Amino acid sequence: MGLFKKIYPPNGKQLFDGGLDTKYEKSIIPDNESPDCLNVIFDAGSVGTRDGFKILNTTSVGSFVNDGVYSRQGNSNAETMVAFFNGAGYTLAGTTFTTIGSAQSVFTAGVRVGAAQQEQHLFCGTGGVIPYKYNGTDFTRHGVYVKSNTASYVTGGAGNPNGMYQYKIVFVNSQSVESDASEAATTITVASTKVEISSIPVGPQSWGVATRRIYRTVTSGSTFLRLATLSDNTTTTYSDNIADASLGTAAPSDHGVPPKYSTIIYHNGRLFMNDTDNPSYVWYTDLNEPYTVGAASFQIIGDTSTDQVTGFAVTDNSLIVFCGKNPWVIFMQDTTVSNWRVIKAKSNFTSKSPFGAFSYNNKVGFPAVQNDVFVGIGSIEGITTTPDVTQLVSGAIGGELTSSRVETDMFDMVSAYVGNFSSIVYKNKAYISMTKVSGSTTNNRVYVMDFNLGVLSDKQNESWVPWSGLNASQFVIYAGNLYFGSSTANGY
What we know:
Helix content: under 10%
Strand content: 35-45%
Strand order of the largest sheet: 5-6-7-8
């Protein structure tokens, strides 16, 4: 007896944490795996029936699918659940979703809303329409827009202005960020008289305008300098009696509005967005200023035909950009844009699922597509901070997928709806929702990937189990619990 050492099961216990294995013959799969399991959970090596779920909102929003659900973090870590149904935005109050006053009929019903948070604002877009932001109270346009300069300029009584002048108008949002300046008004010539300005444009409520500024040239000049600030969004007149020497700073010149994005992510003090009008562009905001986008603040990734941007993920210092044919990596050794480097990741697979990527164990998991067909869940891992393509490896290289044990069970996923994937990580498990079985058009199956190495058997990285009866369009963690919006048209 002393010549033999029992190493499995440890301490005389049989583990059952291996999960589903449908790829290999029953006779050769490990003892801790099962050829047939559904709606179970694994806990400390044991297996049991999964818990159920309950409806959060006691009153249905209506006969609508959920087009996205997010948690917005406010002051003192206060959370707000924000959900989208039928092209409109709602917030949770107790067990009831209440409409956000200015978020009605903003987006298109049935189109998923992509969102990311920075500076306590949730930035939201669906592609093809102007994106918006939500600060817990106001739902206003993401960018800082400005109206045409329709003001009128006439001479007044005796004053300081003397010569030929032009004017521009700038709108300012609640975060004191300015728009680009409007076009210049017609030149007005005065001889030591005031300039009486009227019909100054006012921004619509949905634009989020807090104040406006007037910029003016010096006599016969071409540079527009700050003349005055109107500390509201209602005043329409101003009397200009300012001498040239008293004008302020120059007007902004590169405060453009963001693209019409459908997917967006926050990373290293910036927002990164796709562009439905320019499918190979990845736009980014200035450092710690998420409201405007410079005219040259973009990277061209992939090509303009088949390798277009489909989604984002973050790993370490890098932004992963999934395109139609390849995943790309923008390596960022610091926040200086000129130091960024674009690399094509070494992977046989890409992703066409804007909401399907998830981070776990210093990896990024994603719904993997090969030759436009869904083949399972892949992973990408950056093993060094060196911006060298040879140091970026993919868990899917050589045909090995993270989900290899259940690939046959996943093969009946409906590839036409690969864009519906939704994934999230909660308590050391990844929850992945997809559309299964030919003829289905909405998410109707959840796969749970357990990656907590402490409860898995030796040399096994992940275990898988499918859950039925869950129609999840998108997951969210709110108040420490896991929720999902319904992919069926029931308004829950």
